[in-house]
């Protein structure tokens, strides 16, 4: 049965937060504690959000294990980003990091402890002391379940602050008026199939990544880029979508994540000859070089015939750490290896391959989480819209994210956006603006076409076609020929997405409807990724282009902005000027 716009139920809130992961819940906590009425929408129960899967740690220069300071952390982040990260945002994040972590500790997050009671920190890829001199222990860890601990801690605090959760709801579209302000969202209650208009003075997108547009991914099945799809359809650009991180260590054949914390604790990568090959590629940092670097090195070993077993993977050896250390520091990793690779890492090495893991790009924002529109290289904040976490491009990660900066990004910018909304909300009584019927119509028409179609393309077939096209055309190593074919392949799938069909038209918990709506978001992300990648003629960070193997700072030290309409590209400069300190000028990345 098609929904009728006039009868749509409406709810009003000061703020609607879409997504209940680390970023969404850190933001909603600030809002609820300040007395604002806040609704948090989540496709799954909040503690099932994908933040729960983060394993290794959250970075902060606490200096508990060895000397460290935020300026070194900033340098590592800028260098890790291959100089595409905005240095004002990176300074802000690295300076805020220690306080953000201590705040979590005071919230009750169960970090591992040193004998003196301080938070335990482990080494991690790309974390160095004194501007690249030697590895440093900077990742604050709760065993190998840091994201799990963080998510549960934030959920409990939100329950105490009386945050309103809308569990198993899916946001559909942003609602904008003629001036371009965002006034809330349309949303689907999965249990009943009803569509609601949720009016908000401020809307926050915290919908996470979109790694499910690849066939092999460490991402949860919910990571379908819903916030990115909503933003793209509303006319906002997506920034730097060519940059996707392949995590070096996904379980071969399964894609399940094996944390970089394994290498932080002393695990090593070996080829079929038993050689620790990272010593050849990164003599200083070895297995703890940044992720894009390690992934390409592994891929090269496999391509050059030094892969293990059937030649399709390398192995991660950690038996030398001892069963006791593995059980204490990496208990979940042992469980994952036994269940998904059928090996006990206390005795045998784990077969691993690079697997898609994290999107560096997203919806462009400033350090307060405000979404910005871009014209002629200039940015202007959009009234009423914020984006935080993995779906946002605050551009602290640039072309390649430093390990454990993802959890830090969530809490620093979740808190920053929350504070900004509270401070800019003095007139609590300000009434809601009226929402144009045309905005609601657009969203309803999209759903109604799906509901009423009597034949067309199967959701699963189109979804699989997107995943296979991305896997084949947009891998660890790229060529212009492959990328251009990828653009054509994805664009040819767009009309099929417009004719998705599902047989079951029932209302209650109809997962076929949800999956079809998710595919309409996935296609936007896939289009943005392939088009942006095919046009960047250089190699930088995670974008390794065989035709142009060198980084080109003269022509390409700039952010890509992709617009859905006409798949149009624009660009804006990288912010090289930090807030208070000297800039780090570009130099070659060696480890």
Automatic annotation (TrEMBL):
SUPFAM superfamilies: FAD/NAD(P)-binding domain, Succinate dehydrogenase/fumarate reductase flavoprotein C-terminal domain, Succinate dehydrogenase/fumarate reductase flavoprotein, catalytic domain. InterPro entries: FAD-dep_OxRdtase_2_FAD-bd, FAD/NAD-bd_sf, FRD_SDH_FAD_BS, Fum_R/Succ_DH_flav-like_C_sf, Fum_Rdtase/Succ_DH_flav-like_C, SdhA/FrdA/AprA, Succ_DH/fumarate_Rdtase_cat_sf, Succ_DH_flav_su_fwd. Substrate binds at residues 247, 259, 357, 401. GO terms for biological process: anaerobic respiration; electron transport chain; tricarboxylic acid cycle. It is a peripheral membrane protein. Its cofactor is FAD. Its main location: membrane. Its EC number is 1.3.5.1. Pathway: Carbohydrate metabolism; tricarboxylic acid cycle; fumarate from succinate (bacterial route): step 1/1. GO terms for molecular function: electron transfer activity; flavin adenine dinucleotide binding; succinate dehydrogenase (quinone) activity. Pfam families: FAD_binding_2, Succ_DH_flav_C. Keywords: Cell inner membrane, Cell membrane, Electron transport, FAD, Flavoprotein, Membrane, Oxidoreductase, Transport, Tricarboxylic acid cycle. It is found in: Cell inner membrane. It is an enzyme of class 1 (oxidoreductase). The active site is at residue 291. FAD binds at residues 19-24, 42-57, 226, 390, 406-407. It catalyses: a quinone + succinate = fumarate + a quinol. It comes from the Bacteria. Part of an enzyme complex containing four subunits: a flavoprotein, an iron-sulfur, cytochrome b-556, and a hydrophobic anchor protein. Belongs to the FAD-dependent oxidoreductase 2 family. FRD/SDH subfamily. This is Succinate dehydrogenase flavoprotein subunit.
